[in-house]
Amino acid sequence: MATLEFDEEGARRVERTYATPDVVAQRAQVLALLAPQPGERVLDIGSGPGYLAASLADAVGPTGTVYGLDPSPAMNAIARSRSATRPWIRIEDGDAATLPYPDSSFDAAVATQVYEYVPDMPRALAELRRVLRAGGRTLVLDTDWDSLVWHTTDRELHRRVIAAWEEHVVHPHLPCLLAGLLRRAGFTVPEQRVVVLFNPQLHAQTFSANMMELIAEFVVGRRGVTAEDAVAWLGDLRARADEGDYLFSLTRYVFLATAT
Ligand SMILES: C[S@@+](CC[C@H](N)C(=O)[O-])C[C@H]1O[C@@H](n2cnc3c(N)ncnc32)[C@H](O)[C@@H]1O
Asked: In this protein, which residues make up the domain named Methyltransferase type (predicted)?
């Protein structure tokens, strides 16, 4: 079964969702932890709409360089227009499993919400280690979909919808494996944290308002979920909001690692 597609519509949707205050706050935490310095060379693997690459570029300044790499032409078009005023960003087509850079090219690298889409993780992390200099640092952030809490009254329907949604990635539960994978790829992992996306109310500018629409579209025809099921699931979530007892929370896991 195909995972989520980052075609033109998919890319615009990620761009909208990643502009919500929830994801803006997530990016601020990522930046604070990675702490990019003026003059550094930084790689953003799976750079998507380019928000993080732009912030990284502001931190390293014109004496540094930021490379954004992504296989989606639609994402790269958005990221290039976002980067136009910062000529020290380069957005390139490519895949995490075969990084098109020489050994020891970068001081730091990030991959946020990307590796869960990458089938061969040992290979991707071997590539990540290869392109970082010894002592270089990396920050990896991914979601474990077991961490999802969403108030619904029909929990059986909700479980079916989320089981179907888990097909949008190759690895819906990657965080449990990441520290071990990073260590086996030649990293130490001095710091692990969580970033919680928490919406105690539903409004258009929340992460969960954007996600519920995407999930309702994606799940139809998967794991026996019908269009009527998807409408009923959405209706249940919105009714929770109308009745004042909406609640959504999802945990991202962050790994800060150093190349040995
Ligand atoms: C949910 S978006 C995250 C974008 C960005 N990292 C961020 O946090 O704003 C996932 C991105 O991963 C990219 N992606 C998927 N498979 C990939 C792969 N094998 N190598 C590199 N990037 C990949 C997609 O094209 C998409 O842009």
From this structure: 43-139
